[in-house]
Amino acid sequence: MLLDLSEEHKEHLAFLPRVDGAGKLNVSSDTVQHGVEGLTYLLTESSKLMISELDFQDSVFVLGFSEELNKLLLQLYLDNRKEIRTILNELAPDLPTYHSLEWRLDVQLASRSLRQQIKPAVTFKLHLNHNGDHSTKVLQTDPATLLHLVQQLEQALEEMKTNHCRRVVRNIK
Amino acid sequence: MARALPPPPPPPPRAACARPQQLSARRVSRGARVEGHGALTMELSESVQRGFQTLADPGSFDSNAFALLLRAAFQSLLDAQADEAVLDHPDLKHIDPVVLKYCHAAAATYILEAGKHRADKSTLSTFLEDCKFDRERIELFCTEYQNNKNSLESLLESIGRSLPHITDVSWRLEYQIKTNQLHKMYRPAYLVTLNVENTDSQSYPEISFSCNMEQLQDLVGKLKDASKSLERATQL
Question: How large is the ipTM?
């Protein structure tokens, strides 16, 4: 799959070959900005679509750069692709993600309304991440519900091993 | 135990209320301390004692009326649908409504205190004897108490504040293909929702979060650790 670069993009990127070895730029700040934006767009779009090396090279070819510059751009793409995709992933509509869980065993011995109790409970601190914010929730449950939670979530994990899920994963690529 | 003050006059008729003032009962003056189970003592106010003294008196309450009032007291406390009408029995009509309510409140208050302190039969008997109950009425009271003990203790146990309580969990497994920001994702993801109950606000919020396979394995692993630890602790 080739990248579709508009005329505007090509124009912005045209500035790149003009950057000489010493790094001095004799151009306006606008041009520099456009150049950077163009480069950013090139890399993010390529990463988003996860285009192959060959496709990337072919897409860049239309810009008419030197082979050296083309090689450089390809390397830039391959080196940064994974990280760019990680960052793009965070832009998606999202729910808080699980970070970790702390737990504690408690036994209630008495309360204002009833003495001499033996009431076991498990207290949790659930750590979640959402858009960079870390939040915690303190929750409690009883032994029976705890067993139920374990059972339900183990079933969830088992699902991935079923034939149905395996087939989907194999065939959707 | 010697009383420092003379007994006060009976309190004015209470506003229509089947439920007496329970755990934070207004005390007219310090009444007797009743030795409970072990070192625990129950604090019982003057009005509770006077109520029971009246209940002991066959002139104020004949056997049938006593049994009915006793049953009404337990009903008011334990039956969620109970209301004012619990004292509206034909066999109680002949008794002054003020006295009826007073004694009903005294009985209910004592029942709650006894439940709270897990009073045993001897504690109950001792108190009732001090209030001049005859053997038959003591037996009846103890039997009724025994019959309702479990419900009473359940009720008392459920009163109080606690952390948000997890009641259930739902999960969803999805296979992520693409977003408008990222194509060719091809990975499974879980969405987990915990159903939570808040005891005081009676609200039922949900806590939802997503996780990948590894994270869910971590979560399940930790839950299993907690569960095993609980099992070991309860075997001690």
Answer: 0.76
Contacts of A48 in chain B (CB under 8 A): 181-183
A55-89: burial string, b at 16+ Cβ within 10 Å, e else: ebeebbeebebeeeebeebbeebeeebeebbeebe
* Spatial separation of the C-alpha atoms in residues A42 and A19, rounded to whole Å: 18
- Chain B, 126 to 165: residues with Cβ < 8 Å from chain A are 153, 156-157, 159-160, 162-165
What are the DSSP calls for A66-92, one per residue?
-HHHHHHHHHHHHHHHHHHHHHHHTTS
**DSSP helix, strand, coil percent of chain B (3-state; round to 5):** 45, 15, 40
Q: In this structure, what token pair is assigned to residue A169?
A: 């994963």
**Over the stretch A70-119, which tens digit does the pLDDT of each residue have?**
999 999 999 999 999 988 887 776 789 999 999 999 999 999 999 999 99
Given B153, B186, B209, which is nearest A172 (Cβ)?
Answer: B186
